[in-house]
């Protein structure tokens, strides 16, 4: 049985002194001030003077080790004991070999698969408690926000598809109603927003152009145009009939 210790660093490897100073201030306010969390790197020490962690690389495993508390890329903050493991040194080495295969460097992701996630899994396999929540809270919050945004975008696309489908069904239904009512004579006074002809035209515009008529005048004009034509045809037929009757012998 041996002690498992967690080493925690402030992430100050941005290459910019101004950015590094800002990160230190954020960690001081959000971790030291209110205990919420910050931007941290972590590593696990078990058996010996080396600490183990995970980082990005183009090829090979992302699991690496360095002298405990002396990672030159970051600013050392503190350490804590997470418990004691019952595994032998040989078994711990086996676990590290497995993790080295399972955690390639090119799979590193700042929000969903970073050094803190690796230490969490390493500690779980060692049979000790996981990292305190504040160590990786910012990354977990960012990952959750991205997932929520992706789910919201997916639901919006699904809703749009359902609305378009429903509109097409309603349009086909209204076209059928309009066709079945064509046998009767329409009066200009009966043409309004509730008429099947107007509703069919409105849904057609919704599907094809996405533009709803601004007023009922367009639909009324369309319905009203049919009546004068019908009356004009009746008048023409009556004139022809009168002409024929006048030419017949009495």
From TrEMBL:
Stretches for region Disordered: 209-250
GO molecular function: deubiquitinase activity
UniProt-listed InterPro entries: PPPDE_dom (IPR008580), PPPDE_sf (IPR042266)
Stored SMART domains: DUF862
Biased composition annotated in UniProt, kind: Polar residues: 209-219
PPPDE domain sequence ranges: 2-143
Low complexity: bias regions: 229-244
Record's keyword annotation contains Transcription: no
GO biological process: protein deubiquitination; proteolysis
UniProt keyword annotations, A-Z: Hydrolase, Protease
Annotated family: Belongs to the DeSI family.
Protein name listed in UniProt: PPPDE domain-containing protein
Organism listed in the record: Hibiscus trionum (Flower of an hour)
């Amino acid at each position: 049985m041996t002690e498992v210790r967690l080493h925690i660093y402030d992430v100050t490897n941005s290459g910019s002194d101004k950015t590094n100073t800002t990160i230190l201030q954020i960690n001081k306010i959000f971790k030291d001030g209110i205990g919420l969390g910050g931007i941290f790197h972590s590593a696990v020490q078990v058996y010996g003077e080396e600490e183990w962690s995970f980082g990005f690389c183009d090829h090979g495993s992302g699991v690496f080790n360095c002298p405990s508390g002396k990672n030159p890329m970051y600013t050392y903050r503190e350490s804590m004991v997470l418990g004691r493991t019952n595994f032998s040194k040989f078994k711990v080495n086996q676990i590290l070999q497995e993790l080295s295969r399972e955690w390639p460097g090119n799979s590193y992701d700042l929000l969903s698969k970073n050094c803190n996630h690796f230490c969490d899994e390493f500690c779980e396999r060692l049979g000790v408690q996981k990292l305190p929540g504040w160590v990786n809270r910012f990354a977990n919050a960012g990952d959750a926000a991205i997932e929520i945004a992706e789910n919201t975008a997916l639901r919006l696309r699904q809703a749009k598809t359902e609305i378009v489908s429903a509109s097409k069904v309603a349009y086909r239904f209204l076209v059928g109603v309009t066709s079945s009512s064509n046998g009767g004579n329409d009066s200009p006074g009966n043409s309004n927003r509730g008429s099947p002809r107007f509703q069919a035209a409105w849904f057609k515009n919704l599907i094809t152009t996405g533009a709803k008529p601004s007023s009922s005048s367009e639909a009324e004009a369309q319905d009203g145009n049919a009546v004068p034509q019908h009356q004009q045809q009746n008048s023409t037929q009556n004139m022809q009939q009168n002409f024929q009757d006048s030419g017949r012998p009495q």
